[in-house]
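User: I'm designing a mutation panel for Glycoside hydrolase family 76 protein and want to avoid disrupting the core. Could you give me a predicted structure to guide residue selection? Please restate the sequence first so the numbering is unambiguous.

Assistant: Good idea. Sequence first, for numbering, then the predicted structure tokens:
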Amino acid sequence: MDATSPAQSRAMAAESAVVRRYVHRYGPLAWALAATPGVDGARTWHYWWHAHLLHVLRDAQEHRPDPRRARLLRALHRGVTVCTLGRWTTPFYDDVAWMTLALQRYDAHDRRLDRLTRRLDEAIDPAVGALPWAVDSALYNAPANGPAAIALASSAHRGSAVDLDAWVAATLDDPATGLVRDGVEHGVVRPDLWTYNQGVAIGSALALAEAAPDADAREAHEARAASLVRAVARWCAPDDDLFPAAGGGDGGLFAGILARYLAEAALWFADDASSEAHRPVADVARRLVHRNAAALWDGRRGGSFPADPRRPARAAGDDLDLSVQVGAWITLEAEVALERALTS
């Protein structure tokens, strides 16, 4: 696909703004600030935000290969190594799962992956059948179990991925909406609905479908992914297909994560010639990604994107967070992935 196509041009603009405003290089190392200079806590190093920065940079490298970006990826990889003292882990299993996914995307042969996937697998509580949010936490939630299921699906621990996905479906699926609720703590379900929890549930279903041992298992996972895409569409329909906003901070990444896995669903179901019922699912997923990417682009001001696609970007507040800008960039790269599929 032409690197100057509309989708590519928009993604390039998002990438340029993030790298220019947030990423700092120190010799062979690089890392990103949490916000633009002058904002409280701007110099904080966020582990899971860096996981998504690595991931989206790798997406960009696939979409627009460039040796300069490859060097930046290596520098950021070294930066994570230094900032984590070589461990690449934290006490928060959701963060570890995201970093594992980023590392799988960056280099599927990285020697750290066996250690990270083993850490996730060994942390699953057999009494619950799920991964806690953090070490010694009583919260078992979708933000930890969803990305962990995706990460484990292509590892030696695929059986655990199947179990985690099934636990989310049985415990957190909301029978009224078909959406995934946030988590359960001390036996009480947290009813909050967040965009990224829908995204990782779609992603884990597709990851398990890809590695399914037989046709029946594949169809079951596909059916779950399709059901979730439809539920997201119903959820967003009253607001002109726009994703619910979650503000700045960690919430700045939520909608971008949903966009990434909706794009995966659009590509998966568009390629599934065996089922005509899946074509409409691909169309719905594609429409949601396009609608939100366009709204973010329309709200861009001064090179920055808004935390909420319903308004223009602002020169203060949440829109200054790295997470918000990376989240918008993820959405724009998701649109590139869809455009490439159409033109390849």
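For picking mutation sites, this is relevant: The longest helix spans residues 215-236. The two ends are 6 Å apart (CA to CA).
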